[in-house]
Structure prediction request, 304 residues.
Amino acid sequence: VNHLLGIKYITKEDVDLIFKTADHFKEVINRPIKKVPSLRDITIANLFFENSTRTRLSFELAEKRLSADVVNFSAASSSVKKGETLIDTVNNILSMKVDMVVMRHPNPGAGVFLSQHVNASIVNAGDGAHEHPTQALLDSYSIREKLGEVTGKNVVIVGDILHSRVALSNIFALKLQGANVKVCGPKTLIPKHIEKLGVEVETNLRKALEWCDVANMLRVQNERMDISYFPSTREYVQQFGLNKDLLGSLNKEITIMHPGPINRGVEITSDVADSDHAIILDQVQNGVAVRMAVIYLLASKIKQ
Ligand code: CP
Prediction:
């Protein structure tokens, strides 16, 4: 397969190969000269139809550190605003000899749709509330780095599971690697039948934290939400917000993760987000090496 459209479509062997390759690139980007010449013959377009800070910059840095040629496209300043379709937009970009497309799009399935209609390698950088595969890979890579392995670890994903592509991709990735996964949040923000994915639901945050080795705290995605779904922010903070007192009362060490952007004081307080328990900036740093690995491995197939 010449795409990374979701964790649903890859295997444990793919994940192992991506992590082994990322280990090498992590060493490369810690050198004084952070670049390798591997992809001098590859051109990549980063298409962002939805806002992003981490993912957009991380992909661009990953591509540049592999020496690929890079063009960036933001829908807000493009001819999409004049009514041009997704397929026309991408085919016009590809006609300029582009080999690979990294795309973030608000619609679930946009990456799969594109892969069926254009002749390029597609990397999903987040499609609506569907999948965010590179985020899940960098999250698992960060757990592996911190705790030695992912297999057998207890991971709770806390918050707005219903609207979260990060949650879905993390569930697929963690289960693929043999982790135990629970989700925790208000019932209104947990999809019905999520147990079918092999995860347990826990609506009590304290119980979830007492069980876990790792807590991945998600943002409440107000932008994807019908207001009626949501408990009030004050209720959410009281029941599902992670603060220093709660963490300190557990009598155990847990690793705190967050994909960003953080709503400080809602799902997590600053004294937890900025504490030694949190690996939030390690996740961001690892994102570059993991994305280098994904792009390098896909590009090797293009070259064959
Ligand atoms: N984690 C993440 O996807 O962040 P951005 O939306 O800033 O890319």
